[in-house]
Every structure is written in C-alpha cells, then in structure tokens.
Fold these 3 entries.
Entry 1:
Amino acid sequence: MGGAILSGVTVAQQRGGDHGETRRFLIGIGRGAAGAMLFGMPMLMTMELWQLGFYIERYRLFLLLIANIPLLVVLADRIGFERTSTWSEAFRDAMIAYGLGIVMSATVLILLGDIKPDMPLSEMLGKIAIQSVPASIGALLGRSQLGGQAGGDAGADNDRGGEQEDKGGDGDAVPNEISTSYSRELFLMAVGALFLNLNVAPTEEIILISYKMTPWHAIAAMVVSIAIMHGFVYAVAFKGTHEMPEETPWWHAFFRFTLPGYMVAMLISVYVLWTFGRLDDTAVTQMLMSVIVLSFPGAIGAAAARLIL
C-alpha cells in the first residue's frame, strides 16, 4: 500500500516536472515571437529591404541564409529558449528561432500589404527570406532581453544554476564564458554588428553619406567608433559592463578587445554591403568610405552585444 502511494507521488512529481518544462519552453517560444517582431520591426517596415527581396542575387541571399544557421546555433547555445546541454539542443533552438523569424516576417509583410496573392512566388519567398535573418536573431534576443525577473520567472532562472552564480548585487548576469572565451567575445561582437548593420545597410543613406564624407570625416568616424566601443564596455557603468582588475593596464582591453572588435565590425560591414550589392561597380576609395560609414553603427552593435548577451 505504502509502495503504491510512493509510486503515485513519484509519477505526479514527474508529470509536474514535465508540465513545468513544457510551460517554460512555451513561454520561451512566446518571448521568441515577441523578440522577432520587436527587434525585426524596423527592417520589416523598411522599403529598401522589400525591394532587395525582389532583386537581390539569389546566390548572395542563399549564402546569407546559410551563414545565419551556425550563427543562430552558437547564439542559441548562449541564450536559447531553454537551457541547452548539447549542440543538438542548440541546433533545435536555432531552427525554432529561424522558423519564428520566417512566420513573423511573413505575417507582418502580409499584414502590411507588401505580400499579395498575385505576386510571383519567387518575390514572396525572397522578401520573407531576407527579413527572416534579422527576425530570427531577434527571436533569440527576445529570450535574453524579455526574460522574466526574479519572482515571475524564478523557477526557470533557478534551473539555470551556473548562470546565476555570476550575478552581481543588482541581478545583472555576466556569465564566466564571456570573460574567459576570447573567441566567444569576438563572436558576440560579430552578432551585434551584423544585427545593427542589417538595419541600415539596405538604405540609400549609407551610400549618400559616404559620398559626402571627406577623408578627415572618415578618420574622425573611425576614432569615434573605437572610442564608443571602448567606452560602452569598459569606461561607463552600463548594465553588464565588464570590469577589469585594477592591476590590468588600460591598453590591455583596448588592444585585446576594442581594436579587434572594430575590425570584426568592419569585416561584417564589408560582407553585408557585398550581400546587398552596395559595393558593385564602385571604386576602392568609395568602398572604403561606405565600410567606414556602416562600421559606425556596426561598432555600436558589437559593443552592445557584449553588454546584453
């Protein structure tokens, strides 16, 4: 009799645990959908991206879609919809984020009347595909930025164990992996630069600004971009700021993180401009100007990624 009661209690506990896991996962899906819409909305309502979905060369679009997969997998391992312990689970979360990005992009584009039944299928797919990249990144960012605080989501947060050990007194989580893994630092910078670059790279203003700039403007833009990157992460007390030990010289972080981070932002800018055809039939000097212009928001995105991820 006692054994039967214990067995029943065990089964009930298992069902309760399964229900809790399912609930947390569904909450994560909801946050992902909200993140896809919130972070993707500026691009979903940008006319240049609508047009790019129509005329962008398909091999460039395909390369962007493929490159987004490993990016999402690594990002999902960092801030997935639920705690992941294997790469297969991270891949699952990445595919869910991609699916949410596709669904939310299609929904919003249809709602705005930018996708209509009489359009060619290739145009519909192109518009949805190009919008799904930033929307999928936004879906995973939604897990990081729209997560519950202590109280409403305490149970889920407690399950993440190790992540909570690195919280400061104000509850700002700064996982050890960010400070110890140099490659992950650079990867997060690349994600931030890519996400912000996708917001502005399709616009004509980038090319217009680059034509108006003089070499002195370009040098000033580079100096200011680097200064902002360093200040965002080390000099000002933003949430998530990485504090260096007092005995560490100032130039250590500058040459180890800030300058390489700016180079990452520049490389991402080159790739995004090439993907959108902004570098085609352009002189080398003008290419460099365009890259410097786009690297300004890219550097801010790279620095912000280290704070929020």
Entry 2:
Amino acid sequence: MLLAGLLLFAVPTMIFVVQQSWSGEEGAHGPIVLLTGLWLLHRRWREVSDLAAPAPSRNVWSLLAMLVPLQIFARITQIVEIEGYLMYAAVLVVLYSIVGLEVMKRLWFPLFYLAFIFPPPDTLVAFITVPMKIWLSEAAIWFLTLLGYPIGGEGVRIYIGQYELLVAAACSGINSIISLSAISLFYIYMRHQARWRYAFLLVLLIVPVALIANFFRVLILILLTYHAGEAAAQGFLHNFAGIVMFAIALATIFALDLVLKPLWDRYAETPKPDAANG
C-alpha cells in the first residue's frame, strides 16, 4: 500500500521536476545524478541487505502524516523546489519502513547524493548568487581595466564599449557549483570514501574551483560581446562557454586530487615517530 501510494506521489512530481528543472542549465546534471545514484544505491544495497528489518509502523505513519499534506500543498501551488524535496522525504520514509534505520545509516551517501536531482529553493539561490554576482562583476571589471578595456560597472551591471551586460545567476556560479558538487562528490566518494579527512579537503575545494571557472566564463562572455557583438555572446557561444568552463572545473578537481593525494599520503598520514624512541 505504501509503495502504491508512493508511486502516485512520486511519478507526477518527477515529471514536473524533469519539465521545469532538468530542461534548463540549472538542472542538466539531474539525469546523471539519478542514474549514478541508483547504481550506487544498488551497489551498496548488496553489502547491507542482510541488516534490513522493518521499522516501527507508528514512526512511519507519523512521518507520513506530516509529509503528505505538505506535499499536496506544494503540488497545488506548483513550487517545484519544495515539492521535489517533500516527495523525496516521503520516499525516504517508505524506504525506512522497509529496511529500517540501520540500513538507512549505511546508505547515507547514496541517499544524500540523490537529493541533487532536485533544484535548490529560489530563496537559497538568490541568497548565494547575489554576492557571487557582485564579486564576479567587480573582479572582471578590475581585470579588464588592467588590460586597457573601456569597461565599468555598477552592481551586477557591466558596461563595456557601447554594450551593457547583466551578470545573471547562470553566470554567477550557483548552477555550476551544484552540478560540480554533485559529480565531484560522487568521484570523491568512489575514490576516497574510507579516507574522510582527505575527502573533506577535496570537498572544500569545489566552491573555489567553480568560482574561478565562472570568473573566466564571465571574462569570455564580456570579450565576446565587445569584439563580436551581443548576438554572438548570447547565442550558442554563451552555452558553449558554460560547458567548456564546467569541463575545465571538473578536470581541475581531478587534477587537484592527483597532486594533493601524494602530498597528503606523505605529510598528513605519515606516522609520527614515537617520542620514547627518539
């Protein structure tokens, strides 16, 4: 009964998420996360399936009694961000009812990773992107001023030559940070899941790498606008620049791993000599 009810909730919500989020740049990573997350969940399930035990029904129905009305309200109002997370919370409750808390703890990463298929709330996006947009605008203006370009700006607006550009959320880093975080977390977990300190170090590098990549993306778009015109910068080359910089950012994470891991093994995890032995 729980699984049947879950399908009634999950299928329409996932269709809504695909149509409203996955079709845009901000949700392009969704299909990748879904496929790799389900594969990782299946892989881990084979290791912990023997620990599965049904959860107390009272806990399950109490949680669903809170989630279902909220899910219905979110669907009526068509707030895709809230609806997606509430649906996923209901999925976790149903899974908890079948396998129990111990298995849920052991499956924590695949379950956390799958949450990236849903778009973040607009309020969170706005809170994060505003300072990012301002920082990227000011940094791009400062750099191009050093190179002698006729450029100025106010807030997130950039004026170069006869053109006026607006640094939008797509260029400010939030989209690439979410996508880069999801894929990088998968990579880090698969390679370094047993070394959580080193994995945490790599996670901390995701946001700076994404911001630097988007700084160069903004520079490319400004230069394209100045030298080739606004139509060229806002067409195919706009999206292509985003894809290229995302690929470079992802490759940078991989390269940092290759460089830092030997240093970490040598200095951070080298056993210290016993003081008693000199």
Entry 3:
Amino acid sequence: MKTNTRKDGLKLATIAVMFGLGATMGIAQASSITLNFHSGLAQSRPEAEHLDRFAQLVEEKSGGELKIRVSHAGALGLREADILRTLQRGMVDMALLYGEYYTRDAPALASVYAQGAITEAEQHLEILPVIKELYDDGFSKWGIHTVGGVIAPIFDVGLHCKDPVNSLEDLQGKKVRVWSRHLVDTFDQLGVSAQVIPQNDMYMALQTGVVDCAYYLSTVAKTVSLHEVTKYESYLHPWAAAPWIFGISERALGRLNDAQRHALEEAGQEVWETTLELAVSPEREAQAREEREALGITILPAFSEEDVAIFVAAAWNAWESMAKQAGEDGERYYNTVTHALDDILDISKLEISEHSD
C-alpha cells in the first residue's frame, strides 16, 4: 500500500509539473506579438531583402516573442500618400517610410534632401546622421517612432541621350526627362526644358521623341533598357538617396514590453549599419559602367567641374524655394542640412589642401 501511495504521489507530482510547464508555455505564447508591416516596394527590389532580414532579426533577438509580418508591394491595400495618417490612427503597426512620398500631409519631409546636395559619394555618409535626425523629428509629429531603416546605395546619376551631350551648353535645346518637380525647377534655372515622366513611361518617351535625354541613375540604367533608346551617357553627380525608414506607430509600440522594444531597436540599427557599409562602392559603379559599354553605350567624359558647380547652385536654389513653400519646418530642415553640408565641404577642401602640402 505504501509503495502504491508513493507511486501515486509521484504521478500526481509529475502531472502537476507538466501542467505548470504547459501553463507557462501558454502564457509565453499568448504574450508573443505579431506586427503587420506595410511596404510599397516590390519583393524583387533589393531593399525588400533587407526588410525581410529585419523581420528575421526581430524574431531572433526577441526569442520569438515579437514577429514582423511583412506585406510587400502594397499587399495590405494601403496608399503611400496616406501612410502617415494610417500609422497615426493605428490602422497598421509598421511601415517602410520614404519622406518624399508625403508632400500632401508633410511637405517639409520632402525638403530634407534633394538632388545636387552632394558632389562626392562619401559626403552622403557624413550627412546621413543629420538627415536621420530630421526624419525622426518629422515622423514623430505623426505619432511614429523610427527604428533604423535601409540606406539606399549611392548610384551615379548621368544624362542618357540620343546624341552626344556632356555639358550644360550641349543640353540647350534638348528636352530632358526627370523624376521630380524639384529637378524641373533646377533645369529651368539652367534654361533647359525638363518634365517629370514616370520610370515606366521613360522608355517610350525617349523612343517617340517626347524627350531627347533622360536624367537617370546610370548604375541601374541597364535594368530599364535605356541602351536601346539612347547611345550616349555622361556622368553628372552622385545620387542624393533619401534612406528608407522603419516606422512603428506609437500605439503599436505601447503594446511591447521592454525586451521586445529592445529587439526591435537593435534589429533596425543592425540593418541600418549593414546597408551603410554597402552604400558606397566604386567597384560596383565601375562594373556597371563596363556593362553599359558592353551594351554599346558610348560613355563620354563627365560634365566639367564648372558645369557641376552651376548645376549644384541651381539645385540648391530650387531646393530652398521648395523648402520655403513647405513652411517653417521645411525651411528649418533645409537650413540644417545645407549648413551641415557647407561644413563637410569646407572640411573636404581643408583635407585636400593639407594633403597637397
């Protein structure tokens, strides 16, 4: 009897332990959270790979307590122009943010950075902390907390034309395709006719003579078959690429515990630093140039330093006008970035001078 009683006691103790473990596991599972993440980018874009990596890192660093469900290519049915309002209202937990998309609700965000801002790729890396700080400020006004993001590669920007063009003088009388109103205003100051044409319509516009040249990212020109409708290319300046920001609504952030928040912040920062290391690559640009030449493109000498200086001055004038139209925040963002760029340029000149001595 005593033996049976002891065995029964052990069984009951085992059952109790198993029940306790099951209850604990149930609580852990119940406390795990999945956040819905909107991205308007196609999954084939390189940025999407970093976004998927972000989701993977969040799950790993949180021990499975926090998961990110990424919906690529706007699969949630959300409009980019509405994303600030959507996040503010808590209708989606997270989103991939790009400041230039929100000219209706937050025009100042489009004034943070503009083409012609930099003349050397490395300048972009130095100005990024300033840009990130301003985006953090702008998005916070919409109840959005930023947790890192993706730094886009710095590509060469050139003029891709049917005829040889590698100076502002050559551009006179030409019609140029651009991608933003700021660039239309920039080229207008240079006496050059420019119009915004979406990327998907650029090939046909060149083929049919709507435009003579395309202002475009030379490094990826092959992917849109520009070599089929243009034969000449000349480098102008590096792309001032605004970073893609990971944003989480304050409502969603409030549902997370300290460990989950830490995992989110750490994962976002890791992706930011990884893409920072990949942003500037002379080898990538040289390889892309060789590929374009192999496709039959004649790469002309780059625009002269004098022409670049004139282009940059026009771009900054157009940028300032755009910032003023955006209001007090727009002017503040423009002044902050341009003053920082002035400091960077002065330091660069000093370093060159010291090196030459």
